Automatic annotation (TrEMBL):
Listed name of the protein: 16S rRNA (Guanine(966)-N(2))-methyltransferase RsmD
Keyword match Secreted: no
EC code(s) of this entry: 2.1.1.171
Methyltransferase found in the keyword field: yes
PROSITE patterns: N6_MTASE
Signal peptide residues on this chain, from the entry's feature table: none
Pfam families referenced in this protein's UniProt entry, alphabetically: Cons_hypoth95 (PF03602)
InterPro entries membership: DNA_methylase_N6_adenine_CS (IPR002052), RNA_MeTrfase_RsmD (IPR004398), SAM-dependent_MTases_sf (IPR029063)
Amino acid sequence: MRIISGTYKGRRITAPKKLPIRPTTDMAKESLFNILNNQYYFDAVSVLDLFSGSGNISYEFASRGTEQITSVDANYGCIKFINETAESFNMQIQTIKSDVFTFLEKTSTPYTIIFADPPYDFPLEKFAKIPELIFQNKWLEDQGVLIIEHSKHTDLSHLANYSHSKSYGGNMFSFFEEN
């Protein structure tokens, strides 16, 4: 995987093969950030990266000037890799080792952008739990957005606060906003 734009543009990041990850493809990531670039100033947003895995999305935000980034993953190896990579690039990324659902049930700190990349084989009930907890516990700032990455075979359009989806190859991004 590589960083698409910003201070660290072009830098390649190679995660250990033993990590249980499926990084967002460069094509899908570039398309997503083109959309976000038209809506937000990256140096003025706060980002919550759920199921952060390799930290791919967090690094992209950091490279573009975002200073308030929190990455949450249940896997110790993923958190360790994000910490090491962020330190080597001198990026400010706060990491939290936690089950995402346990984390979202705690007292919230609102974020501008919340990105969630759960396992593609999640049952629909678990996908539905993500926006439910985020909107119920007010994790989003005004004008904020929740983006869930999932397979094109998963349909989230029936969930509360769903706005729209964008498809890139086998990847889908579903956007959720406060009604």
